[in-house]
Design a protein that fits this description.
Number of strands of chain C: 17
Strand order of the largest sheet of chain C: 1-14-13-17-15-16
Shape of chain A: globular
Strand content of chain A: under 5%
Radius of gyration of chain C: 30 Å
Structural class of chain A: mainly alpha
Bound molecules: iron/sulfur cluster
Number of helices of chain A: 18
Number of domains of chain C: 2
Oligomer: heterotrimer
Chains: A mainly alpha (347), B mainly alpha (185), C alpha/beta (524)
Radius of gyration of chain A: 22 Å
CATH topology of the largest domain in chain C: Rossmann fold
Distance between the termini of chain C: 62 Å
C-alpha cells in the first residue's frame, strides 16, 4: 500500500492570504462609506476604475509571466492595492490617470519585482506618487466635503467630469473643487497668517479638517477591527501616530501660532488611513517587533517634516516609501532575542 | 587657499604614513589567497585539472595562470565559490560530463588482487592498505574517489562503487520538488 | 510556589484539536508477537549498534543481539525467542524511505526468556554507576520520540548539579495517547521510575508536567504518589497548548528557566525525561528487563479500531494495523508520530522502533493535501507562534535561496521543527520542510569539508614522506660516494672499476627505495 508523503506538519491552519486580504477590505468599508458620504460619486467611480484596472493588469501580466492567473487573483491583493490607491486619489481625477496609476502600481511596483511578497515598495503608494509628480494639477484638485459645499456633483456630472476631464457646462474647476485642509493650512501659513486666524475658517471641525476628521474616525474603527482580528499588529499604527502627535505637539507647544495643533495632523489628511492600512502592508513593512516600532515612528516623524517643510500636499506616501527602503535594514538590526539566547533567568 | 592646500597635503601625508605603517605592521605571511582557494577545492587530488593535485592547481589559480573551471569533482558549486572568492566571472565547466559523475569510492576485488602494491603508490591520500604479495584493501572513509589507482592495476581488479545515501546522510530534497500524492510514488 | 509556577509560559504555540478521545476508549491491549521481527541497528541518536549474533543463531527473548558501539549508542535485544534469519538492509522508518542495516529474527512461537540480570530493588544503596550501566545494558532511549540514549542523558557528572527532574507527560501532539494510557494504567511504575531517576541525578524535586486534557492520568499519578509518600514530586497541570511538550518549552513552563540556545537542560540544573522512559527505567532496574516492547497509539480515521497497544519492537507497521482492525477506506497517509512532527511513510512495511510512539493512519479530512505554496507576504504570523522565538520567514527566505550562512545567522539550528509556523502560515509555505532541507544540506557540506580536510592532511603527509625518503636516499648516496672517494684516493685503484661499482650501488639503492614503505600507508 502506498501513502502520500511530505514533510510535517501535516496539519494546516485555517488561515489563507485571501482571508487576510478579505479582512483588510472589510475593515476598509466604514471609512470608504464615510468618504462616499462626504465626497460623493466620484470616489465610487474611481474605485470601480481602479479595481477593474488592477484585476485586468494583474491577470495580463501573470499570463505574460506564465504564472497561474486564477490562483493569484483569488488572493485579492490586487483589489486591496487598487482600493487603497482609489481612496488616496482626488474624487474627480480623469479616468485615464487612475488607470495609469493603478497599472503602474500593479505592473511595475508589484509584478516586475516578482509579484506579491517580493515588492519592496507599497504598490498603491508607488502608483500614487507617480501620479502626484506627473499630474500635480489634477492630483491636487480635491472636492470640498459635502458639509462645506452643501451639494456634491451628481452621478451624471461626476461621470462627465471623470471621463471628459472637463467641468460641466457653465462651471469652472475653481467653483467645484476645493483645497484639502492640509493644502489650505500650508497656503495660509505661507501667507504668514496665524493659526488662530486660520482656525476660524469653516474648514475646520472638532479635530481636524471638517468632514475629513470623520473619515479618519471611520478608518480608525476599521484599523482597530484589524488589530482585534490580529490582521495587523498595533505597533506600526501606534508608533506612527504616536510619533506624529509627539513631534507635532512639541512644535505646537513651542509656537502654537505657526504650527497647527497636533490633532490637526491626525485628522486632516491620510495619516489614519496610512497608519492602519498603508504603513502596515506587511510585504513592504518591517516585521520584527522592535523594528515595527522604529519603522512606524520614523514614518510619523517624516510625515510631520514633509508636511511642515516640504512642498507636497500630503506626506504619507513619501514617508511610507522612504521607510519601505529602510525596512530590510531595520529588520536586520532589530532581530528579537531568541529563546535561550541571553543568560538563563533563574536566580 | 594656502591653508586649504596645506591641510590637504598634510592629510595626504598622514594617511600615507598610516597606510604605509599598516602595510608593514599587518603584513600577512605566505600566500593566503592560495590557501583560501585550496580550502575551497574538494581535495580529491585526482589531477583532472591537469595539475599534480589540488594545491598546485590552487597556486596556479592564485597567480592567475589557470582558469577556475577545471575541477570536475568540485563541479558547479566549487566553480561559483571560486568565482566569488577571486572576483572573476563564472565560466562553464571544462568537463561537464566528469562533473556529473556520482560520488564513488574505489573497491578492490580481493580475490583477484595479486598484491603488486602499484595502487598503493598511486593513491594520493594513502587510502589503500596492504603489503607486497598480499591482498590490498581500500579504506572507504579515506578514499577520495580520484580513480588514480585504476590505471596502474595490472589485473584490473579495482572498481569504482557509487556512494549511495544512507538514512544518516540523506538530504531532504528542495521543497518545491516533492510532495507526492498517494499512488504516484 | 505552585502558584508562582502557573505564571510561566513560553512564547507562541498554537491551539489544536487534540483528537485524543478516539484512542483512549479501550485499555492498552497486548498484541501477539509476529512471525518476523525487524530490528534496525540505528533506532536511536548516535552510532549504530554492532550486531553480536550471526545469521542462523538461535536467540532467546531478552538476549542481547546488538551492542552499543560507542558512548552515544544503544544496545538492542531480541523481543522474542527465535532464529536470526538475516542481517542486512531492510526498509526502516525514515522519511527518506531508504534501507538500513537491520537484524531480522524469525519467531519460534515459544517466546522463551533468556536469563535476566538480578533486579536491583535496593537501588538507593547502589552506586549510580551501576544503575547507569544497567540502563545502558537495557538499551533504553528517550521514548517520547527523540530516542536519545538515556544512560548518556542521566550521566550528569562534570556538569552543573541537577536540582530538578522534569518528567515530560505533556504529550502535546494531537492524536497521541500512549503516555496518557501508560500513566492511567501504570502510574505506580511511573512513580518508581521517577524514584530511580531522582536518585541517579540527585534531584531535589521532581515536576511532572501534564496538559490539562488528561485529568484521569494526572489523578492516577497523584494517587500513586500519595501511596508512596513520595515527597518533592509534584504533578503540575499545564494548559493545553502545542508544543508544551517540547523539552525546552516544558522546562520553561514548569520552572521558568530558559535552557540556553545550543545548550542542554543540565545547564539550568534540569534533567528532562519522558514518562514512558521512566517506566522503562523501572523495568530495567527493578525487574532486570531490557527494552523490547513499548506502548504505541494506533489512531486516525484511517484505521477501524483506534487504540493503544503494547507491541514488540520490530513488529511491522502493517501487522500492527491489521491487528487493530485494519485500514478503513478513508486512509490517505500513514504517519509515524503525530500530525505536527511525525514522518509520513510511503508504505507500511517498516518496523515499530523504540522511537515510534504513534501510527497515525489519517484520512483526507484529517490531514488534507497541503494547499499550494504561495509567496510569503511577511505577515509575521509565524513569528507570533514560534516557540523558539525565531523569525521563521527570514530563515525561510534564505533557505529558499540556498543562502545557508544567512539562514544560520537567523538561528536555523534553534528551530525545533515543531511546525507551528507552517501551521499558521496563510501562504501555506512548507516552512519546516525548507528548514530540514537547509539543515541536511549544511550537515552534508560539513561532512564534505571534514572529508576534504582529511584528504588534504593525508595528501600533505604523503608528499612530505616521499620528500623525506628522497632526501634520505640522497644522503645515503652522498655518504657512500664520499666513502668511495676516500677509498679510491687512498688506494688509487682502477678508477674505471670504481665508477662501475658506484653505479651498481646506486641502482641497488634505488631499488631498495622503490616501494616507499608499502606496509605502512597511513603511517605518518
Ligand atoms: S506566516 Fe507565512 S506568509 Fe506570514 S510571514 Fe510567515 S512565512 Fe511569510
Ligand atoms: S518549526 Fe521552527 S521556526 Fe517554525 S515555529 Fe517551530 S521552532 Fe519556530
Amino acid at each position: 500500500m502506498q501513502f502520500a508523503t511530505g514533510s510535517s506538519p501535516h496539519l494546516a491552519g485555517p488561515q489563507s492570504v485571501t482571508r487576510v486580504m478579505a479582512l483588510v477590505l472589510l475593515a476598509l468599508v466604514p471609512g470608504t462609506l464615510a468618504m462616499l458620504w462626504y465626497f460623493g460619486w466620484g470616489l465610487l467611480i474611481n474605485l470601480a476604475i481602479a479595481v477593474i484596472t488592477a484585476v485586468v493588469a494583474e491577470a495580463a501580466i501573470l499570463l505574460l509571466r506564465g504564472r497561474p492567473v486564477a490562483a493569484t487573483l483569488i488572493d485579492l491583493s490586487a483589489v486591496v492595492t487598487a482600493w487603497l490607491l482609489a481612496l488616496a486619489l482626488p474624487p474627480l481625477l480623469p479616468w485615464w490617470q487612475t488607470v495609469l496609476g493603478t497599472t503602474f502600481a500593479i505592473v511595475i511596483a508589484k509584478q516586475l519585482f516578482g509579484g506579491i511578497g517580493f515588492n519592496p515598495f507599497n504598490p498603491a503608494m508607488a502608483g500614487y506618487v507617480l501620479l502626484l509628480v506627473s499630474f500635480p494639477v489634477t492630483m491636487t484638485r480635491w472636492l470640498p466635503p459635502e458639509v462645506l459645499s452643501g451639494n456634491l456633483p451628481s452621478l451624471a456630472d461626476s461621470l462627465h467630469m471623470i471621463f471628459s476631464g472637463t467641468p460641466p457646462a457653465g462651471q469652472t474647476w475653481d467653483v467645484i473643487s476645493g483645497a484639502t485642509p492640509l493644502d489650505q493650512m500650508r497656503t495660509e501659513l505661507s501667507q504668514n497668517r496665524m493659526i488662530s486666524e486660520i482656525h476660524k475658517s469653516p474648514l475646520w471641525g472638532d479635530f481636524g479638517g471638517r468632514g475629513w476628521e470623520w473619515v479618519g474616525n471611520w478608518f480608525l474603527l476599521g484599523g482597530l477591527f484589524m488589530i482585534w482580528r490580529r490582521v495587523i499588529s498595533w505597533r506600526i499604527p501606534a508608533s506612527m501616530l504616536g510619533a506624529l502627535l509627539l513631534v507635532a505637539g512639541l512644535f505646537w507647544a513651542i509656537d502654537p501660532e505657526t504650527h497647527p495643533f497636533p490633532a490637526f495632523h491626525l485628522f486632516s489628511g491620510g495619516a489614519i488611513l496610512g497608519a492602519f492600512f498603508i504603513a502596515t502592508d506587511p510585504v513592504s513593512a518591517s516585521t520584527t517587533p522592535r523594528g515595527q516600532l522604529i519603522y512606524g515612528a520614523l514614518i510619523g516623524v517624516l510625515v510631520f517634516i514633509i508636511r511642515t517643510w516640504g512642498g507636497y500636499p500630503d506626506a504619507v506616501a513619501f514617508s511610507v516609501l522612504l521607510l519601505n527602503m529602510a525596512a530590510p535594514t531595520i529588520d536586520y538590526y532589530t532581530q528579537p532575542r531568541i529563546f535561550g539566547q541571553r543568560k538563563s533567568n533563574d536566580a | 587657499m594656502i591653508t586649504a592646500i596645506l591641510t590637504i597635503a598634510g592629510l595626504a601625508t598622514l594617511f600615507g604614513l598610516i597606510l604605509g605603517y599598516s602595510a608593514i605592521r599587518f603584513r600577512v605571511e605566505g600566500d593566503p589567497i592560495a590557501d583560501q582557494i585550496d580550502a575551497l577545492l574538494p581535495q580529491t587530488q585526482c589531477g583532472q585539472c591537469g595539475f599534480a593535485g589540488c594545491r598546485p592547481y590552487a597556486e596556479a589559480m592564485a597567480t592567475g595562470e589557470a582558469e577556475i573551471n577545471r575541477c570536475p569533482p568540485g563541479g558547479e558549486a566549487t566553480m561559483i565559490a571560486l568565482a566569488e572568492l577571486l572576483g572573476r566571472d563564472p565560466v562553464a565547466l571544462e568537463d561537464e560530463a566528469a562533473a556529473e559523475k556520482p560520488k564513488s569510492v574505489a573497491y578492490i576485488v580481493e580475490d583477484e588482487c595479486i598484491g603488486c602494491t602499484l595502487c598503493i603508490q598511486a593513491c594520493p591520500v594513502d587510502a589503500i592498505m596492504g603489503a607486497a604479495k598480499q591482498m590490498h584493501t581500500v579504506i572507504t572513509d579515506e578514499c577520495t574517489g580520484c580513480e588514480l589507482c585504476l590505471p596502474p592495476c595490472p589485473v584490473e581488479c579495482i572498481h569504482m562503487q557509487p556512494l549511495g545515501a544512507t538514512p544518516q546522510t540523506w538530504k531532504w530534497p528542495y521543497p518545491a520538488d516533492t510532495v507526492t500524492e498517494a499512488g504516484h510514488g | 510556589m505552585a502558584d508562582a509556577r502557573k505564571d510561566w509560559s513560553f512564547h507562541g504555540g498554537v491551539h489544536l484539536d487534540d483528537h485524543k478521545a478516539e484512542s483512549t476508549g479501550q485499555p492498552v491491549r497486548r498484541l501477539p508477537i509476529p512471525d518476523r521481527l525487524t530490528l534496525p541497528l540505528h533506532q536511536h541518536i548516535g552510532l549504530s549498534a554492532e550486531p553480536v549474533v550471526r545469521v542462523g543463531d538461535l536467540v532467546k527473548k531478552g538476549q542481547l543481539v546488538a551492542q552499543a558501539s560507542d558512548y552515544v549508542s544503544a544496545s538492542i535485544h531480541a523481543p522474542t525467542s527465535g532464529r536470526v534469519v538475516g542481517i542486512g538492509p531492510q526498509a526502516v522508518p525514515h522519511p527518506s524511505g531508504l534501507y538500513d542495516a537491520c537484524i531480522v529474527i524469525e519467531s519460534d512461537g515459544k517466546d522463551a526468556w533468556t536469563d535476566l540480570p538480578e533486579p536491583m530493588t535496593d537501588y538507593a544503596t547502589l552506586p549510580t554507576a551501576d544503575l547507569r550501566e544497567r540502563i545502558r545494558w537495557a538499551g533504553i532511549v528517550g521514548l517520547g520520540g527523540a530516542a536519545f540514549p538515556t544512560a548518556v542523558k542521566v550521566n550528569t557528572s562534570g556538569q552543573r548539579p541537577i536540582d530538578t527532574l522534569v518528567i515530560n507527560a505533556a504529550e502535546c501532539e494531537p492524536y497521541i495517547t500512549c503516555d496518557d494510557m501508560l500513566m492511567r494504567e501504570q502510574a505506580a511504575d511511573v512513580v518508581e521510575g521517577i524514584g530511580i531517576l531522582r536518585h541517579l541525578v540527585g534531584a531535589r524535586q521532581c515536576l511532572i508536567g501534564i496538559e490539562d486534557n488528561k485529568p484521569e492520568a494526572a489523578e492516577a499519578l497523584r494517587q500513586a504518589l500519595s501511596t508512596k509518600a513520595d515527597t518533592g514530586t509534584e504533578v503540575v497541570v499545564i494548559p493545553t497548548l502545542y508544543p508544551s511538550g517540547g523539552e525546552k518549552q516544558l522546562i520553561r513552563l514548569l520552572t521558568g528557566r530558559e535552557v540556553p540556545s545550543h545548550g542542554l537542560p543540565a545547564a539550568v540544573g534540569v534533567l528532562c525525561q519522558n514518562v514512558a522512559t521512566a517506566v522503562a527505567v523501572a523495568d530495567a532496574v527493578l525487574r532486570g528487563r531490557p527494552l523490547i516492547e513499548r506502548v504505541i497509539t494506533v489512531t486516525g480515521r484511517g484505521v477501524r479500531q483506534p487504540g493503544n497497544f503494547r507491541v514488540a519492537i520490530g513488529s511491522a507497521a502493517d501487522f500492527v494495523i491489521a491487528q487493530s482492525g485494519g485500514y478503513s477506506d478513508a486512509v490517505r497517509q500513514l504517519i509515524l508520530g503525530g500530525p505536527m512532527m511525525g514522518f509520513a511513510m510511503q508504505h507500511d512495511q517498516v518496523p515499530v522502533t523504540k522511537a515510534t510512539n504513534c501510527l497515525l493512519a489519517a484520512a483526507q479530512d484529517e490531514v488534507p493535501a497541503h494547499p499550494a505554496e504561495r509567496p510569503c507576504i511577511r505577515c509575521g504570523e509565524c513569528v507570533k507562534v514560534c516557540p523558539a522565538q525565531l523569525l521563521p520567514q527570514q530563515i525561510f527566505w534564505h533557505a529558499r535561496a540556498h543562502d545557508f550562512d544567512k539562514a544560520q545567522d537567523y538561528h536555523l539550528f534553534d528551530c525545533i521543527e515543531c511546525g507551528c509556523c507552517a501551521y499558521v502560515c496563510p501562504a501555506h509555505i512548507p516552512l519546516v520542510h525548507y528548514y530540514r532541507f537547509a539543515k541536511t544540506e549544511i550537515w552534508a557540506q560539513e561532512r564534505e569539508r571534514e572529508k576534504s580536510d582529511l584528504a588534504r592532511r593525508r595528501h600533505e603527509a604523503r608528499v612530505a614522506r616521499i620528500e623525506r625518503l628522497e632526501q634520505e636516499r640522497k644522503a645515503r648516496l652522498r655518504q657512500k660516494k664520499e666513502a668511495l672517494e676516500q677509498k679510491s684516493g687512498e688506494s688509487a685503484a682502477d678508477p674505471k672499476k670504481a665508477a662501475i661499482e658506484a653505479a651498481m650501488r646506486r641502482v641497488a639503492a634505488k631499488k631498495a627505495a622503490q616501494p616507499p614503505e608499502p606496509e605502512t600507508p597511513g603511517g605518518e
